[in-house]
Amino acid sequence: MSIQGPCALLSVSDKTGLLPFARTLDEAGWTLVSTGGTRQHLEDGGLEVVAVSELTGFPEMFDGRVKTLHPLIHGGVLARRNHEGDRAEMAEHDVPDIRLVAVNLYPFEETVKDGASLEDASEMIDIGGPTLLRAAAKNHATQTVVCDPDDYERVGEAIVGEEVTEGMRKSLAKKAFRHTGNYDAAIVDYFDGEVSDEDALPSEWPIGLRRQSQLRYGENPHQPGALYKEPLGDDLGGFEQLHGKDLSYNNLVDLDAAVQIADEFDDPTCAIIKHTNPAGCATGENLLDAYNDALKCDPMSAFGGIAAFTRPVGADVAEAMHDRFWEVICAPSYSDEAMEYLTQRKNVRILRMPGELPEVGRALRATLFGVLVQGTDPRIEFDRDSMDVPTDREPTEEEWRALEFNWRVCKHVKSNAIVFGRERRTVGVGAGQMSRVDAVEFAIQKAREETDGCVVASDAFFPFRDGPDTAYEAGATAIIQPGGSRNDSEVIEACDEHDMAMVMTGNRHFRH
Questions:
Q1: Which of 268, 336, 380, 487 has its CA 20 to 30 A from that of 313?
Q2: Catalytic pick from 70, 138, 243, 245?
Q3: Active site residue 275
């Protein structure tokens, strides 16, 4: 079948906005070429359409698996109009002059998001669509490729005005390559859940991130910021914002820290975060007790902080929080009375966390040298039998419980990290100091003379005995730390001199 003039190949799963776009092309004198459901949609809209099968002389085959994979189609997409030899071959073989490709892909992500069998997922892996997009994008010098319905209007206006510039074609090609790359990344993401890698950090790792929201700025006003999600991830990781201003970059970073600390505990827990570090954390018989004890740790730093809870927030907790300024509050749910209290402050961001927190398998950090990737530090499994007690004195049962609680919190404090605390709450936190003894002294300062009878958790080993000596002088009775220093014997000796119990876990929890 011979077609004169420019052609537009239209084959889409998402038909949003397609009909007005196709009418614009038709009125501009373009021939519309299409497949299956897209063709029917256009014809139902009153447009004349040439079927791909009419053009190729081959029917759609294998339940639609093969439709556009044909030399007459891809020849029309890939031929170089500025190449004399290509033009001659087009004329010789009656190859249609396809100047525009509008394609979007099978809804793979939507199919697998709520669970799908491997067979069903495989059927939603588009082959012809990505091939057409990549071919048209490759030939962007004379080819216009459209993969996003949001671009239909501006492309149609440019075609009518004969103003489809090289810059526009290049920009659309970049978008198409990004689109197919993300599509492939979503497929890899799905198969990651089906097949475990032998290597925890594979040699190649396509990451297809999609921008979920544009943030006002990053850490500072002069830095642009945005939130992206992985291909098969939920918006906001499944968290739901119920009230307040839009979340900022710093809100999201701090909220991540708060929720991860709270998730270390099974009992009613409140974690209060400021600048990614805990200003206080406590568990209690009920959530109100946990909140009040967490706030005692550092009420000044808690101002403008983030509070995360492990239980539904009721009116009692909301009323207790009402007279303080909070940036973000996050909990599994809220009573109606609690929401009445909390929403009286229009700017506080109130979030509901999902029933199950999203899994974060790998952590990324951009550096001047490349992207660093590591496995995440999982929730602590506190096994006393696997730990070493090298001191003369064993911890008492009360000390053991206090050591476990504060060890869990210390894992989430910036290194060098020291936490003074009791059985169910933190008392003083020393975060991000350049020496470990400085971290001890800072934690004591923050504790405001409440350290007598406390235990101490240290995220990494004590390099010298000055840390335990300083903790003892403040009234600490027991220490938990990883061990592994060349001076461990000196540190153990210091603890024995002070009749302090010390536990060595064998596991470090640096947080840079």
A1: 380
A2: 138
A3: yes
